[in-house]
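The following block was generated as part of the benchmark described in Methods. Ligand: magnesium ion.
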Amino acid sequence: MRTSPTILHVDLDAFFAAVEQRDRPELRGRPVIVGGDSRARGVVSTASYEARAFGVHSAMPLRTAAGLCPDGVFLPVDGAKYRRESRRVMEILGRYTPLVEQVSIDEAFLDVAGSEKLFGPPAEIARRLKAEVRDETGLTVSVGAATTKLVAKVASDLRKPDGLVVVAPGTEAAFLAPLAIRRLWGVGEQTRLILAEHGVRTIGDLAALPLDVLVRRLGAHGAALHDRARGIDPSLVTPETAAKSVSHEHTFDVDTADPEVIERTLLALAEGVAARLRAGGVRASTVQVKVRDSAFHTSTRQRTLPEPTDLADPIFRTALDLARPEVRGRRVRLLGVGAHGLGEPAQLDLFGEEDPRRHRAAEAQDAIRRKYGTHALTRARLLGDPLADPGGRDPLQPLEGRRVGRALPAGGPDDRGRAGRPPGAGGRTPAPDDDPPTP
Ligand code: TTP
Ligand code: MG
Ligand code: MG
């Protein structure tokens, strides 16, 4: 048990709306609703605190929001901008400890147990990082500090916006007791209804329920709730040591429009990505392709898979599908395949659709590659052509900086277009998030 509230939960206030209000001062103090046009069929992503006063909240249909708040300013979602701001904030958090676990676009847990000598006690660290985020990004965060992730998360939400709540060690259960049960992590609507049958409204009511009653009604989940109601949570802050995404790219020595070459390259890239996912013990839920043409115009497209995977086939098929309209009629300079939305393979997957034999085969291939080098084993259709190294890792610099493979005979050795127009001139819009891949 910790003797100091060294786990911080940091969450941005009204994140998407706050970014818009920062960038357009005329919107400050006004009800801002991010999600799209008020007549559109979508839902609210978030609402500024001014709009929340009208009852508008995340996930509400935009038309309902428009009815509640007719003078609201409705704005589209600018995902690339919010991701950029998110990275800036996460970078600030990383100054205080390497133990930063980002849990969504606008929140993270920090374990500052080792940072006290350098930066002072947790409450002081929280004040400093709040000030730094405000000064450097113009955004506010709310922070909770406690001995467990569970209590820190509840605490950060309690005094929003711009809040700071420190829960002293030993006071967790008393802190939670008066709070509504919905504030407890892992209590969904179903559970809430069952608990209501036992007269549970507050977390304190839950803590007072005998363990056997909880287990009888909710099984293992009930036992966990018994602990959580007291603020007990053994989970640790686990920073993402593994990459958040894996991507492989290949630059052709000679730009190509040959569909066969493009297809084989995508397959090689997909194999490399899948091998790295398996090596990392993770699966990806989203596949992205990147296409850069001879005029240096880059486009990216991505798609979420029906279920997360670490196998080359679904990654390749999705990448090919995404790439087809992008490569049509263009001479391609670079292709990239990326896997995003990485997560641990769920235990459940063992009993799911996927054939475990395919997995064992893929793992055996990985082992052979490790033993004999990455070229020892490639699919028959890849043989004979020097393509992207399917087992290769991303270097620190983007892969396009290194020439992988050799010139493919795709229309002769012309280098037309490369030096021609500067990047971004005319034609296609550059991809918003065209960062170099990070290892
Ligand atoms: P939250 O942190 O849940 O909400 P928030 O930051 O807007 O407001 P709060 O001050 O209460 O923290 O979510 C972060 C962002 O994620 C939010 O700004 C928009 C997006 N989001 C959605 O797009 N849909 C949703 O249903 C939710 C809950 C959030
Ligand atoms: Mg938030
Ligand atoms: Mg959040």
